[in-house]
Amino acid sequence: MGEREEVKLLGTWYSPVVARAKIALRLKSVDYDYFEEDLFGSKSELLLKSNPVHKKVPVLIHNNKPILESLNIVEYIDETWNASGPSILPSHPHDRSQARFWSAFVDDKWFPTLIATTITKSENAKAKGMEEVGEGLLLLEDAFISISKGERFFGGEVIGFMDICLGSFLVILKAREKLKGENILDKSKTPSLCKWANQFLADHTVKNVVPEIDRVVKFMREFEAETQTRA
């Protein structure tokens, strides 16, 4: 037996993209040391050294080598510990390309639109943004039906790459629905996605990794109040 590999994860408890790395590490049964960062205060020297360009989390450090960006980290975990746990990325090239395409859609278009509606003060812009968020969810509903092929997750019967990507934002969605009284995930419009969301959050790999919704609600309420005070 060789020496234990050194695996560290730098993150913040409330970050959905940090949750991605945690879920992937759990899927692969990888032991790691977790370090909580204070992004609004004094960032650690380890973070600044490991990610000098963006100075943000998550950062995975494997045997003193940093790996950056959440989905890149998920792929790295999948490839590095390929003999442990289920494959996170699909094995077929077309399925893999679909997972990457829709993950890019979530990260580059859908979620930024949701965030923009949160911070805008224009009611017209907010309404237009939420319409676009809803349209994006309809596209993701169709994508889920196509990719899952009738199984529980985008990845089939086990959580995969696209599940981790979109699923990491579910706690924020649920928290915002609770805080704002919004109905973002609408069962009448996206029934398959709603069922998937409940199954994802209830999965043993996920439920002890992502933060509690009430705790996120409290964080969002305090953050908004502080932001308004500074404005």
Automatic annotation (TrEMBL):
Q: Any keyword Transferase?
A: yes
- Pfam families, from UniProt? GST_N
Q: Which PROSITE patterns match?
A: GST_CTER, GST_NTER
Domain GST N-terminal: residue ranges: 5-85
Q: Which domain of life is it from?
A: Eukaryota
Q: Keywords, A to Z?
A: Cytoplasm, Detoxification, Transferase
Biological process terms from the Gene Ontology for this record are: glutathione metabolic process; toxin catabolic process
The record's listing under SUPFAM superfamilies reads: GST C-terminal domain-like (SSF47616), Thioredoxin-like (SSF52833)
Q: Name one GO molecular function term.
A: glutathione transferase activity
EC class name? transferase
Tell me its EC number(s), please: 2.5.1.18
Spell out the InterPro entries in the cross-references: Glutathione-S-Trfase_C-like, Glutathione-S-Trfase_C_sf, Glutathione_S-Trfase, Glutathione_S-Trfase_N, GST_C_Tau, Omega/Tau-like, Thioredoxin-like_sf
User: Where primarily located?
Assistant: cytoplasm
Q: Where is the GST C-terminal domain?
A: 92-229
Q: Name the chemical reaction catalysed here.
A: RX + glutathione = an S-substituted glutathione + a halide anion + H(+)
GO CC annotations?
cytoplasm; cytosol
Q: Where in the cell is it found?
A: Cytoplasm, Cytosol
* Family listed: Belongs to the GST superfamily. Tau family.
Its job: Is involved in the conjugation of reduced glutathione to a wide number of exogenous and endogenous hydrophobic electrophiles.
For this entry, the protein name equals Glutathione S-transferase
Q: Which organism is it from?
A: Brassica napus (Rape)
